[in-house]
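Below sits the subject:
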Amino acid sequence: KWPDALPKPEEEHIASIVCGNSHLHWAFHSGLGDELAPALFWRTPPLEEADVQGSMVDALSRHLPQFAHDFMFGPSEEPSTKAAEKAASQRAVPVLRVYLISTTNGDQLDRLQRLWSCVPSKLWKLSGEDFFSKAQGRYDTMGVDRLACLRGALDLHGAPALVFDGGTATTYTASDASGNIMGGGIGPGLAAKFNAMVDTTSDLPQLSPYAIEAACTRVVASKSPLSTFADNTEDAMLVGVLGEFAYKSRTIIHQWLSKTKTASKTKAADKKKKDMKPNKVNNERIILVTGGDGEIYSKLLEPDHSKIVEMEPKGSPTGPRVSDAWSYKVMHTKHLIHYGIKAALLAQVGLHSQREVSTQQEKDNNLFMGLRVVKMFDGEPYSGTVTSIVRADDIEEELFDIHYDDDDSDQNTPSELYELLMLYYQKGEPGGDKGNADQHKKKREASKAAAEELKKRGYDVPAVAAPKKATEKTMNSSTSTAAAVVSVATADSVSPKIQTKTKSLPDKTAAPTVPPIKTVDVPKRPAAAANLPTSATKAKKSKTKKVYVFQKKANPRDYLKDRVAKVFDDRQTYFGTIMEYSSHEDGSLWSIVYDDGDTEDYDENDIKESITLYEQRKKNDPEYKFHSQAATRLPQMTPPQVPKKNNAGSKSKKSTKTAD
């Protein structure tokens, strides 16, 4: 369904619906400009068949709060298909996208489709793979609701994450510090446990959810927890069920904190698991609680169990209490699953955006690589070939590397490249188009086509002087005048920009010794470069360079969540995030998770080099673009697909990459 299911940048709102066992949970989200943030929540009973037998418009209207109703049918309008179509026609994107998660049978999905059929809308059902891949720890039967909640936790507070969901079933789901799924557990919910005691015995009382909540409120207010050795039936049932959850959850939290407390080097057994890059690091170890029983559970998960049940005494033979050994926070988040939907959609939007960028860059490479150009230096033409495109942090537009036939090199902006391509089209090779005439014609036409493409893209291209008659300069004195005299633009006929571009020329009396140059770290050109005086010599001129000075951090953990960049054998720059820190006998190591899922350990020198390179090239980082252009872009989230790297001769330290 991707990219068809992606939200559009012009959409004001999208909707999400979660089909639970006991309720439908609805949310209205803002548009991409506000990162699809959920803004309005409500819930309704599940749809009955009778709800979709009559007027669909009336049925839908009954299930919408006022804001959503006005958006769909127009302010102060009676619900009707005509009103919905009129309201849709006034929106930039008429069709409302509705994203569904279902943990029940297909009846609810079928009824929702029929319910929304009366208004301009399109429904999309999300699956587990939209939240996590199998490589990130998802197994086939893992509930999509659990995956969505875990994704929401990572989005809100970062990795590692731990989520307790108190619904019809009670579940807990955890991720490690890299955002991969550790796993979790499933058990009966509170109501199921209390009902089981009533259904399977003859004398125990029925405790409703309201009675349970009231009992917890009473106990908290009295500041006297339920005794482990209760002296009445109701308290005995309460302490049995609530104490079981509190004490078991303490063990779960203890193990999660232990497994995620310190960073560790990537184990060989975990190599098959591709790390995902979380946006944040959960340094405070915030534990999220959601679901219908979430409020009670959140109280029981506090280090002192909110004094609802007794704490285990200090010095217990079963080990230290969680509150004595660890630090964590508990947060009740009612609508966590909708934040997971938002995060999954943004991830798909970002992935599609990066694919578009990658596709355009590939097209550019195919269009410009290998093209022939001619550049004038002190009235003499020099031919060369476009060898690469440089995209860096301190330049506003890409630069084109050109390797000249005399083994010199330089870089040119798109506007400058336009001139060089057109000069080649007009003049051909400075020494004459020798050899296959058709082949030379194709080369000149290709240069012209690329120049026209640059012009179409809106670059400020200069007017290139028409070629003069072949009377000014003889290119090759050993050829006949008729064949060898080629028209060459003089200094007066070439724009000042061409005249003043700097290029080192070899000593004509000696063999060329300058090797081909493929510059990557590119200084920004001064704005006044076009107005510099013409050089009497051909020496390179210095350029103003924006210098980033690496500052070592006092605490090595302060590097966590910093972005890094590295160039590998394929000459491509790969971006990643510093996720974990560990100290070993051989020094400090930081665990890096690249955006394509690969991992690598860095030492201090690697950290310095990769952060410095990132500062130079961060404008090429899709995540940097995502955050800096939120209102106009198609944004970030799961690992992008990137060209496959050559891992031969892999660098040390558990690296899966080969450094350039």
User: Anything to note?
Assistant: The chain has 17 helices and 18 strands.
